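Let's practice the habit of predicting before peeking. Look at the sequence and jot down your guess about where helices and strands might fall. Then scroll down.
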Amino acid sequence: MGNNTGTSVEELQACESHQWYRKFMTECPSGLLTYYEFKQFFGLRNLTDTSNAYVRTMFTTFDMNDDGYIDFMEYVAALSLVLKGGVQQKLRWYFKLYDVDGSGCIDREELLQIIKSIRAINALPCEMSAEDFANMVFDKIDINGDGELSYEEFMEGVQKDEMLLKTLTESLDLSHIVQKIQGELRANV
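Done guessing? Here is the structure:
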């Protein structure tokens, strides 16, 4: 039984949590992140109206108590979802994000709007147009053909289609934003 000079996972996570907390409190000393601060926090500037609407929807999904702010616990929950969430958790969040009007269903226009916004923010090249992608999604998983995706259709359809699951997961991968923040954290240590 020698001395254990390694750092435990718990110690690393506690250190990382402390850094996240410092970053959060530095950026918003009030402890509440407004929509404007949210955009600044993630370096989102000069967005189109469509992209701005997407970011607003994202902010709203992270504002779990609907008070117009993201507090530290909501921030941690969002980071946890992005960094460690399972497929089911992420798909539930994606559905809520895509259901822009909160109707409980995703229509083609909502899906198209979000896809265009994500592509504008991520600025990644795509093989398929946003319109073709939205049409493909509906062709594959709108089981009853009513032009809307229910929660059940979305969850079941995406999980059954490996390509669709991969595409949605990659398009909503926020790890590049998290990596940017982590880089800033390391630079400030």
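How did you do? Strands lie at 32-33, 70-71, 105-107, 148-150.
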